[in-house]
Amino acid sequence: MGIFGRIDTFITWFDGVVWGLPLIILILVTGIFLTVRLGLLQVRYLGKALKFMVKNEEDGHGEVTSFGALCTALSATIGTGNIVGVGTAIAAGGPGAIFWMWVVGFVAMALKYSEACVSIAVREKKPEGGYKGGANYYLSKINKPLGFAWSIAIMYGLITAAGVHTGSVVTAAESLGVPRLVATIIVCIIIALIIFGGLQALVQITERLVPFMAAIYILAGLAVVVLNIGNLVPAIVSIFKGAFTGTAALGGFAGATVSAAIRNGCARGVYSSDAGNGQSSIAYSQSSETDPVKQGMWGVFEVFFDTIVVCTFTALVILCTGVWQTGEAGSTLAITAFKSALGGAGNVIASLGLMMFAGSTVLAFCTFIGLTCENVFGKTGRWIGQIGFVILAFVGGTVGVDILLGWADFGNAWTLTLNIIGLLCFSKQIAKWTKNYFEKGSSYAE
User: Fold this and answer.
1) How far apart are CA 446 and CA 428, in angstroms?
2) What pLDDT digit, counting tens, does each position of 229-261 carry?
3) Bridge partners of 276?
4) Contact, 138 vs 281, CB < 8 A?
5) Minimal CA–CA distance to 147: which of 430, 361, 426, 392?
6) DSSP-derived 3-state class of residue 65
7) 2: DSSP letter
8) Cα–Cα distances in angstroms (integers) from residue 119 to residues 214, 259, 282, in the given order
9) With a threshold of 0.90, does the pTM exceed it?
10) Judging by beta carbons within 10 Å of its beta carbon (0-12, 13-18, 19+), is residue 302 exposed, middle or buried?
């Protein structure tokens, strides 16, 4: 076994240990703690978060609008995890894994709200425009080594994720007849163009792409569910039953224990929503919004839409069509399900959906790593980080998703742990901002 094989074995072992009880407890306990401290904010004020989508008021002077920051954050959040991740969770943990994805999604609303709040409150304007902010910045306010450690972890995480999401784009393109190498080169060229265009170029794309791709995907998913409406109730029952009893072997499905459902549901739920890892704070810190709570409400909507809406549609498509029982790899379950229900049109819709979801994530990540590297190492560091990103994107396009997914989980474990430490340290202040806003109309009211 070569050095790469040894590293891969270690990462697989590490993921198996950490993505068991340790991180699950950390995520759930922290999420529940913040939920209680914020007064069940994601329940009491979810309607207000949804209202922000209809009536968006801009009164700041940041580099991007709060809606633009949301779309940029959503472009990073809605990606491979919503299609490939859901399929992988079901393939390894059975239908019950989806219940635990919902649980993570619920507590993730409080986590994402909190990091969006802090990213606005703890940031500094740069002389040349834009802000110096994000998790690396507010963690450094607590302890400089903590902020630096998060920066290194997110750089690793974003670079490995470049391979995962590019691999997803290329696999989807390959199913439509595009040669793998050609698709990989095209994706890398587009990434390079976004690097030269900067944050404004990314926002211009995501503000148009995110709403369009989400609408098309949800409508297609709804069509599949309607065509298999007789299986809808059994599918929903299997989610709740499997969450607490496990799932027996069925057809090509090998079966799954309760622990497998919990582990895979939570791991893929975190990967899909980026729950608490601080990644979205990079986008939110550049928003024109000046009130922490108002930007935080966009964070609540982000997780709700990503996990409760998009992931649920993917799960119902897979479960209602029955393809999860075939024993097929989780990375292709969603595309197979769409194809089985809608024929060639379904294959095209699912493949294009995956390409747009994963593609928008790659574009967001290449901007995020640039901003993080610049904050830590200066402008030269930004270019080095983004060049490394393109290289790993090319590697991911050629080797595929499955090999790199565990490596991405490894990085996510570290960013998550470090960022949660920061959110807990700021939790008292976040609660104060929240109370002030909903009682007095401003987070900074005294």
Assistant:
1) 15
2) 999 999 999 999 999 999 998 888 888 999 889
3) none
4) yes
5) 426
6) coil
7) -
8) 26, 35, 8
9) no
10) buried
Residues with Cβ within 8 Å of residue 245, at least 6 apart in sequence: 96, 258
In the block, tokens 């991405």 appear at 408
Residue 86 has which token pair? 């859901």
3-state secondary structure the chain: CCHHHHHHHHHHHHHHHHCCHHHHHHHHHHHHHHHHHCCCHHHHCHHHHHHHHHCCCCCCCCCECHHHHHHHHHHHHCCHHHHHHHHHHHHHHCCHHHHHHHHHHHHHHHHHHHHHHHHHHCCEECCCCCEECCHHHHHHHHCHHHHHHHHHHHHHHHHHHHHHHHHHHHHHHHHCCCCHHHHHHHHHHHHHHHHHHHHHHHHHHHHHHHHHHHHHHHHHHHHHHHHCHHHHHHHHHHHHHHHHHCECCECCECCECHHHHHHHHHHHHHHHHCCCCCCHHHHHCCECCCCHHHHHHHHHHHHHHHHHHHHHHHHHHHHHHCHHHHCCCHHHHHHHHHHHHHHHHHHHHHHHHHHHHHHHHHHHHHHHHHHHHHHHHCHHHHHHHHHHHHHHHHHHHHHCCHHHHHHHHHHHHHHHHHHHHHHHHHHHHHHHHHHHHHHHCCCCCC
How long, in residues, is the chain? 446
Integer Cα distance of 385 and 241 in angstroms: 45
Instruction: Return the bridge partners of 250, or none.
Output: 253
426 close to 114: Cβ distance less than 8 angstroms:
yes
Question: CA angle, corner 21, sides to 17 and 26, nearest 5?
Answer: 115
Residue with tokens 């960013």: 415
- Ranking 29-43, 96-110, 328-342, 414-428 by mean pLDDT, the lowest is 328-342
In 3D space, the residue among 231, 223, 228, 229 whose CA is nearest the CA of residue 346 turns out to be 223
H helix or E strand, kind and range, residue 312: helix 312-321
Paired tokens of 395:
């590697």
Residue 253 DSSP symbol: B
> pLDDT tens, 264-283?
888 788 777 877 888 888 88
pLDDT score recorded for residue 60: 47
The answer on pLDDT for 428 being more than 90 is: yes
Integer Cα distance of 54 and 48 in angstroms: 10
